[in-house]
Amino acid sequence: MPLIDDISTLEQSALASLQDADLAALEGWYAKFLGKKGSLTEILKGLKDLTPDERKEAGSRAHHAREKLEASYQARRQSLSRAQMDARLASEYWDALRPLQTGHGHQHPITQITEELEDLFTVMGFTVMDGPEVETDANNFGKLNFSDDHPARDMQDTIWLKGESALMRTHTSSVQVRSMQLLKPPFRIVAPGRCFRFEETDASHENTFYQAEGMMIDKDLSVANLIHVMKTFLSSFFERDVNVRLRPGFFPFVEPGFELDIQCLVCGGPGCPVCKHSGWVELLPCGMVHPNVLRAGGLDPNIWNGFAFGLGLSRLVMMRYAIEDIRHFLSGNLRFLEKF
Ligand code: DAH
Question: Which end of the chain has fewer CB atoms < 10 Å from its terminal CB, N or C?
Fold first, then answer.
């Protein structure tokens, strides 16, 4: 009977195309084969031309075909929905209790050493001071005994702020006069912080670097006190006995001024490549505070005196960790920072 053959053919092709249908195509598939205007309905219009027996047989065949296709349709729909949900669950998986994958942060090596230095000086009775990075010409130069045409001004390549007499401080010595105006003598201060100079960078020069200023004001202080404080600090810092020596040095705000050297920590004196075979390494400048600086800070030089020193903090950290290039510090290079 042709009509029954048509139903069989329809069933075959409907099942075949169901295998290829995705979720979006399913409704279309249903309408095409089982819908009110679908293929099956179309075939069944031929029933009226059949004999009653034939009609009965064909009707039953059509009923089974519809049931089978309906069931296949539901099964396909379910398996596609489940697959879609599984894919979503897999891709959107989030375990709120899973430990974070990122590493732990830690302090920058400069910050570590700054805190260590603050601790060592605090033990010796020093107060930690802070000063602004944007400074007045007066605090950075004028009150530190740099005259307007003083050649020493040219020693500093200064970053000036546009249209103002303000500048980026070139050294932490700018905190000296601030401290004298803020504190009642006698006092001892240490002031670590950032400094700026307008210069070409290379392995030992940065436009942004770190210093720590030290200053002690009292009555009748001498170079011996300066040497003692420096020796005590350096021996604690390097965790061994450090020998120091002074050579003359010139800075407008100290008189006399010195360059302090330490005996080479690598060879201990006989000479090696690190100390360029001299046995000594230049470490920090220092001196007795110039009377003009005391006056600028409001102190009477006939009553008060003191010493000051300027530690190259970046350099100290480089020595401690054998870092070969100062530019690593502000590079933001995590592979460098992770070592500390
Ligand atoms: N401020 C000087 C500089 O950056 C260093 C310095 C020299 C500081 C002598 C001092 C000092 O306190 O006494 O070049």
Answer: N
Neighbour count for residue 196 (Cβ, 10 Å):
20
**Per-residue pLDDT tens over the stretch 135-172:** 999 999 999 999 888 765 666 688 989 877 899 999 99
- Secondary structure letter of residue 268 according to DSSP: S
Residue 115 has pLDDT above 70, yes or no: yes
Residue 12, classed as helix, strand or coil, is helix
Residue at 103 is within a domain: no
| Distance in Å, CA 219 to ligand 1 centroid | 22
Instruction: Inform me whether the pLDDT recorded for 102 exceeds 90.
Output: no
Of 206, 239, 240, 197, nearest to 323 by C-alpha is: 206
Judged on CB neighbours under 10 Å (0-12, 13-18, 19+), 247 is: exposed
Residues 17 and 159 in one domain: no
- CA–CA dist 110, 315 (Å, integer): 10
What residue's CA is closest to ligand 1, atom 9?
286
Sign, Cα dihedral of 211, 172, 287, 202: positive
Residues 147-174 as b/e (b if ≥16 CB within 10 A, e otherwise) read: eeeeeebeebebbeeeeeeebbbbbbbb
* Residue at token pair 């009775």: 125
Four-point Cα dihedral 270, 275, 281, 282, nearest 10: 140
Structural domain for 76, as ranges: 2-91
**For ligand 1, what atom is nearest to the CA of residue 211?**
4
Shared domain check, 259 and 189: yes
Q: What's the token pair of residue 231?
A: 């020796």
Residues with CB under 6 Å of ligand 1 are: 171, 173, 213, 251, 254, 257, 285-287, 308-310
CA angle 158/161/166 to nearest 5° reads 80
The last residue of a domain, from among 91, 117, 147: 91
Mean pLDDT to the nearest integer, 8-30: 93
